[in-house]
Write a structure and sequence with these properties.
Layout lengths: L2 H20 L3 H16 L2 H4 L3 E3 L11 H9 L3 E8 L2 E6 L6 E3 L5 E3 L4 E2 L6 E4 L3 E3 L4 E2 L5 H8 L5 E5 L5 E2 L14 E3 L4 E3 L2
Parallel strand pairs: 1-2, 1-7, 7-10, 8-11, 10-12
Antiparallel strand pairs: 2-3, 3-6, 4-5, 8-9, 12-13
Helix pairs in contact: 2-4
């Protein structure tokens, strides 16, 4: 598959899955966010984590607020990403800390201490779609794939989302697309090979 075909295939997946996710009621997504947070917190790699990078949800993504609150209550150092040029920079974050609204609707920390990528134990990874092998289709910027290369090799990459975001067919992927190790939905934990 050449670069144009790969872009087209990802765009088609993005359009289909986003339409299904956007159709969910807000109250349903809120309940799913709480359930996904509970399931995520049950992961052994999270139980031993000292530093977890979470994302700020936007649009029809499941809310990460319940997860951030629970991690902070456990004494885990939580980091949120912010976009700097073509890369992600991670800053410490606690509920109530100041944020800035991005052009695409996510909130970025406007303060907080820098967190080095090699100190992060678990990277909570957003996507529009996942497959059961850990491939993901994001929003098309490549920020997380570039960030994964700067993280520790043993840092766990865990996708989180609604069950409808896990597609049955293998997702289109290029050599630069890095996989997640696990996917958490409100209903299940998928361990990726």
């Amino acid at each position: 598959m050449n670069a144009q075909e790969l872009k087209r295939a990802k765009r088609d997946v993005r359009r289909r899955v986003l339409a299904a996710r956007d159709a969910l009621e807000q109250s349903t997504r809120d309940a799913m966010g709480v359930a996904a947070a509970e399931r995520f917190l049950s992961l052994p790699e999270v139980a031993s984590a000292r530093v977890v990078m979470v994302f700020s949800s936007f649009g029809s993504e499941l809310s990460m607020d319940p997860l951030i609150e629970r991690l902070c209550a456990r004494g885990v150092l939580v980091g949120l990403p912010r976009i700097v040029g073509r890369d992600l920079e991670v800053r410490s974050f606690r509920p109530g800390d100041p944020t800035t609204l991005t052009s695409f609707g996510a909130r970025e920390p406007s303060a907080g201490d820098p967190i080095e990528p090699d100190s992060i134990d678990v990277i909570v990874t957003p996507a529009v779609a996942f497959d059961r092998e850990g491939r993901r289709v994001g929003y098309g910027g490549g920020y997380y794939d570039r960030f994964f290369l700067r993280a520790r090799p043993d840092a766990r990459r865990v996708g989180i989302g609604a069950a409808l975001q896990i597609v049955q067919e293998p997702l289109p992927a290029g050599h630069f697309d890095l996989r997640v190790h696990a996917i958490v939905t409100p209903e299940e934990i998928v361990r990726c090979s």
